Structures are given as structure tokens and as C-alpha cells.
Amino acid sequence: MALVVQKYGGSSVADAACIKRVAQRIVATKKAGNDVVVAVSAMGDTTDELLDLAQQVSPMPPGRELDMLLTAGERISMALLAMAIGNLGVEARSFTGSQAGVITDSTHGKARIIDVTPGRIREAIDKGQIAIVAGFQGVSRDTKDITTLGRGGSDTTAVALAAALNADVCEIYTDVDGVFTADPRIVPTARRIPRISYEEMLEMAACGAKILHLRCVEYARRFNLPIHVRSSFSNKEGTWVVADPVSEEGQMEQPIISGVAHDRSEAKITVVGVPDKVGEAASIFKALADAEINIDMIVQNVSAAATGRTDISFTLPATDGPTAINALKKIQDDVGFESLLYDDRIGKVSLIGAGMRSHPGVTAKFFGALADAGVNIEMISTSEIRISVIVSQDDVDAAVTAAHSAFNLDADQVEAVVYGGTGR
Amino acid sequence: MALVVQKYGGSSVADAACIKRVAQRIVATKKAGNDVVVAVSAMGDTTDELLDLAQQVSPMPPGRELDMLLTAGERISMALLAMAIGNLGVEARSFTGSQAGVITDSTHGKARIIDVTPGRIREAIDKGQIAIVAGFQGVSRDTKDITTLGRGGSDTTAVALAAALNADVCEIYTDVDGVFTADPRIVPTARRIPRISYEEMLEMAACGAKILHLRCVEYARRFNLPIHVRSSFSNKEGTWVVADPVSEEGQMEQPIISGVAHDRSEAKITVVGVPDKVGEAASIFKALADAEINIDMIVQNVSAAATGRTDISFTLPATDGPTAINALKKIQDDVGFESLLYDDRIGKVSLIGAGMRSHPGVTAKFFGALADAGVNIEMISTSEIRISVIVSQDDVDAAVTAAHSAFNLDADQVEAVVYGGTGR
């Protein structure tokens, strides 16, 4: 008998009909002989509706109260899901994050899980019950206040519970059949990836593949917990995220490239004419860090000898653009740079594959494919298992298609089916 | 400095605008130099909407899950109210029933409070914060599950908190200016009752005055806690419910009658031709008790010597009518009664007043007034401070008006203003 933790997002429980369908799937998993624990998000647009109400009463609601408000969403969906399962003749119990023992720090709105003490969940399992746990929420160890985990929170809840319960697998249900070699909306012949390593999945997530959140993959890697990403609309096998996909599969050789990811949500800022002195770059990035802005790629031009000045470009989430520009303007006189350029018409295209460690020709082939497709590269960044380039936003589709094809990732026929909307 | 506990019902926090208005009232109470604790119900129709969702996924939702679901309603209203207060520059913290220490038994849907341990509320008060507590909910001592208190639950939460915190007063906000000598919709010249005893208020509540729930008055009496019933739409003094209204007011004499209450929600069942033997009545009322039906008034006719049979009539909530009829039909053969009569076109009119203890003529005057108004009395029941009669539902208005006038309760001018809808 296996212990399976399942996670259903907001689009999977958007209304009563959806909830009843999910209940049937959960009951089927139970009847197949498994113990089942479920993490569930708030129904469809509930979170947005609650945020809207909050805005109506306060332009800057305190984090503690906002968390109290938003956690009502999962309370509703989990109770309804437990009722729907009960109606199918199987006993189910819903638990808040606090009841499930999801202990966090006190950072409201993006709390980090510091411990999971799932005594009541274990008790429910031992009684043969299905435990339904509110995703996205926990309780602060220090203040005993209710907290939320921020983006990707429900996935993280599921993985953290699975790790604490020593589950056999954490199934993340979504509206596609798994992780694909590229976004099927851009490359219709993209292939489902049957198995992928944590490291590659982390790079995919960091490079714009929205199917799993970075935090949940990190958590799974730390506890060596297998994740099965699959569709809540079909019974097909999805994508397994595991430590060592090659040896587990018994394959002879690893594919060089696992997939091509892209991201249109970044912007590029260029600080023009920075005096080429020790500490100038440090001042710039300290100002950005103080404004809590996450920088992605950084390029510093070789200093022009004639002027003694250089340009520094970096990318960041476009939503942080205005904040970053403000922070930099405040230090313009101190640092003495000349001007700021802002460009949010960029895109990032990334090639990810553990196999590229042992294949030195990958970069050349990637850049060659982009050149053949007429795509100009603006910035480059690499890791051991990833190459990312910044291109014009208009060139993203062409770049993804060219790279996908150059590394022979195309399937013979269309494999991907996108079933519903996008979950959270 | 006084400690004031305030309770706002669903109609007082129906939308963002209402919540902001209530926030201003709370802040004004705080700025007047008081410590303030607030118990709040779910917004307007939230509870009904959640019940409707539950019905969609399960025809018979388990009580535990239904309570988990419904308590999301207060979570939303209390977080929004705390935000709205914060936006006025005063710090507020919201607390669930569990966080506020409202400990109950495990009877889901109508749990009873068995202890209140308001450590976190006291802490918030000591920090100068306003504590907002979810009404209607608690946590089971034995199972640690979330419970709801059932009808009148938010009033009970407020009074229980006020008692545990040794508050100076519990203010129950509603949509009328207090308790009136009769329903102003029937008697436009009804007078606001400035002060009333717990005993009289209990009789009023039991006899159909919907302004305060029986349980909350009982709780306040046990702890000798003053309740101030007032309107959330005005700043007028309302009605004080206290132990000894006369001596506290310094009056010379108590009014004979405090008010006239009425109730159209009951039905009458007559069990016809019951054999006049020992134990027959007991069998009938045991069957009703087993079906969990609350009986109000009972009348047994004098047995007719010729037949050796008698009729037993009783009243009960009309909503329990079908259940009661079924329960009685099952024992018809065993008991050997002849038939059942059912009448839900009845009304109960009650005269309440502590002063009637020392005024023996009250009954005669009451019945005389009804006779003059052409109202036929079907059943009679009395307590030390109350006389109730069952009349035809069509005669209720005439009976209330006649009694109100006979005891000189009419004001010189219209005092009552009904501001909004009805709260819960």
C-alpha cells in the first residue's frame, strides 16, 4: 500500500461540478489501495475576489489580516471537497494549515515552512480517512498567527506534507499532461518529458516554465521525494521529477537537451556611463537589493579606455521595473552614472539539459540555430546544465522553435493537449 | 477606562461600505477612552451562499465539514473589519473563535460554550489593540475540531467573551433602537424599553421577540453582565438588559407590564381520543422527545366520563410539524388514540412583566381586552411574570394592539425607527 499526496489547484476545484469530479479521482486512488492525503487551493477566482474586497476597505491592508482573509479561500474549498468525498461513501476530514502542522516563519504573504508536524494527518490516515489539507497556508511558530506561503504555495504545501509523511509520491495535478520539451502553444510538436531530474526541473522553473514552482522542486530535491506532474483531466502518465531519471529508467544514454524554456515576463535595465571605479557596481546592486529586487542576468561591458566609463545591463521581473528605476535614480548623483535605459520588450530563451555537461558543442549549435533563424542575441548567461539568451520579445517564438528543432526534440505527432485554464 | 464588548451582525457588515462605517463606530468608542473587543458575524448572505455550495456537493454534509465551511464567513468579515480599522490609524487584530479561546463541546452545528480562555484577546487589549473576534464559532475541547454555536451564536460569543474578560458592558448592535413594548410594525406607538430585567428579556425572547437570542440572555444573567441593545445606525441609547432595572433606575415603582410579544412560527397538534389511562400522555411526549422536538404549551382536556377518553393539545415550532406527526403516527396503534389534528394557522401573544407578580388583576384585564377586541383564546399558559395565549393567526395583530393599549403602553408619538433589514 502506497501513501500518495495529491495537489489540486484552483482551476481543478473552480465550482461544485469540478469539486465532485476531483472527489471521484481521489476516491479512485483510495480504492486502488492507497492512503491518500490531498492539498487543495482556493476555488477559481476566490483569492482575487477577496483581494478586491480588501482593497475596498484599505489601500494597504496589514499582512497579518490579509493572510487571515485569504486563508478563508482554502477553508471553503477543502470543506466542500471533504463533503463531496463523504458523499461518495469514503470518510474524509479537512484540516487547516495550522491543524495539519504546517509551521512557518512570521513573514506574512510569503512565509517559509520551517517544520511540518502532521500528527493529526497521520491519525486520520491510520483511521482509513482521506485527509484534505488547505494549501498555501500555515501558522507562525513565533506569533501563532495564520500565514500564507505566497506564489506556488499550494504545491509547496503538498511537497512538504509528502516529505514529512514519508509519502511514496507527490502528485501535482494541472491542466496539461506533464512537462513538455517546449511550450506546446509555440511548438505544437513538443514532446512530453517522461522523467526529468530535480536540477533540470529547477532550471526549467527558473527560466519560465510555469508548470511547477521553484520552491516546491527545491523542497522535493532536498527530501528526494518523487513528484508526478499530471493532468486532472486525463488518466495518462505525466512527468516524473526524480533524482536520477537515467539510471531509474535503465537507459543507455541521457538526452543532451531536456527542453527549451522561455520567459516573457522580464525587463532589461541598462545603467549607462558608470565610472569604472572599484565599488560602483556594488553600490548599484546594493541599492537594488535594498529595494528587494531580484536580479536575474547581469552583463558588464568592457570599459572604454578613452572615457573610463562602462555600461552595466541586468534583467529583472518587469513588475519590479518602476521600483528599480526609482531606486537607481536616487543614487545617480552619488554613483555618477550618465543615464538609465529601460526595455521590457525582451524575452529569455533557455536550453536545459544535464547532458550538456559532457557535450561541449551545445553552445555553438544553439547560437548557430538562432543565427539561421535570424534572431539577434542581446545577453547570454550559462550554468552547468543551462544556456539562456535574451532576445527581442518578437523573436521568442522563432528562437524556441529553432532551438527545439536543432536538438531533435520534435515528436512525430502532436502529443500535448491543454485541457483547461491555468492553475495557480 | 471601561472595557466594552461590541457585537455586529451580518447586516451591519453586509458590504465594504458597511464595514467601513462599523469601523468608524468602533474607533470612536476606542477614542472615547474605552478598551474595545468586537464579535462579528459573517457578511450579509455569506452563510446562505456557503450552505448552497454545500448542498451542491452533498445532500447531507457531515457536521464537522459544514462547520469548517461556514466558519470561513466570519474569517472574511473579521479580517476586513480589522483592515478597515487599521486604515483609520488604530491597530486591530482579528482572532478566530479558536484563537480567542472559545472552547465548546463537540456538537457540530449547535455547540455549547464550556469555557472561554481569552489569553490572546487580553494580550491584544494590553497592547492597546482592538481585538476582532469571529462570532458564532469555537473549537471543541475534546476533538480540537472547529465548531459553530448555531442560532444566535454571534450574540452568545459576544456575551461569553464579555463575561470572561469581566467587561463593563456588552453592546449588541442591531437595526432598531432597542427593545420595544411591542413590534412597531404592529403597534406604531410602541415605546422603547429603557431598562429591562434578564428574566423579562428571557420571556420576551422565548415568546417571539427576535431581538436577542435566549442563549445569550441566559449567559448574561448567569454572569450578571449588562447588555446594551442598540442600533448601529444611530447613536441613541437603546435598551439595557440588567439584573434589577428598577432599583438601578431609582424609580419608585415598577411598571406592571414591560411588553407584549408575539410569535407566528408555532403550530398546534391535537391528539384526539386518547384513552384516559396512566402513562398514555407520557408515551406521547416520550415519542416526541425521541424525535428531538421541543414542545411549548400543553393542554389536556378534562376526560369525558362517558367515553373514558380525552384530547391532548400542544404547540411546537411549525418547522417540526411533519416530524412530530410522523412520530405520533408510529405510536398510534400502541397508544390507541383516535386521530391527529394539525393547525399551523395559530399565533401566540404574550404579556410579560415582573410587576404582574404583585398585581393579581392582570389576567382578567388581559382577557377582557382580548374579548373586547373579539379575539377568541384557544390555549393559555402562564409563568410568574408572563401570560401567553394561543389565538388564530389572523387575530394576532388585534390581540397585540388591544393588550398594548389596555396596559397603557402606548407612547404619545411614534418612537421606533427600523433602519435596515434583519440581522442574524
From TrEMBL, chains A, B:
Gene Ontology biological-process annotations: diaminopimelate biosynthetic process; homoserine biosynthetic process; lysine biosynthetic process via diaminopimelate; threonine biosynthetic process
Catalytic activity from the UniProt record: L-aspartate + ATP = 4-phospho-L-aspartate + ADP
This protein's UniProt keywords: Amino-acid biosynthesis, ATP-binding, Diaminopimelate biosynthesis, Kinase, Lysine biosynthesis, Nucleotide-binding, Transferase
Entry-linked PROSITE patterns: ACT, ASPARTOKINASE
Molecular functions (GO terms): aspartate kinase activity; ATP binding
Every ACT domain range: 269-345, 351-424
Record's keyword annotation contains Transferase: yes
GO cellular component: cytosol
Pfam families listed in its UniProt record: AA_kinase, ACT_9
Residues at which ATP binds: K7, Y8, G9, G10, T174, D175, R185
EC number: 2.7.2.4
UniProt: substrate binding residues: T47, E74
Pathway annotation from the record: Amino-acid biosynthesis; L-methionine biosynthesis via de novo pathway; L-homoserine from L-aspartate: step 1/3; Amino-acid biosynthesis; L-lysine biosynthesis via DAP pathway; (S)-tetrahydrodipicolinate from L-aspartate: step 1/4; Amino-acid biosynthesis; L-threonine biosynthesis; L-threonine from L-aspartate: step 1/5
Entry keyword annotation includes Lyase: no
UniProt function note: Catalyzes the phosphorylation of the beta-carboxyl group of aspartic acid with ATP to yield 4-phospho-L-aspartate, which is involved in the branched biosynthetic pathway leading to the biosynthesis of amino acids lysine, threonine, isoleucine and methionine.
Homology family: Belongs to the aspartokinase family.
The protein, known as: Aspartokinase
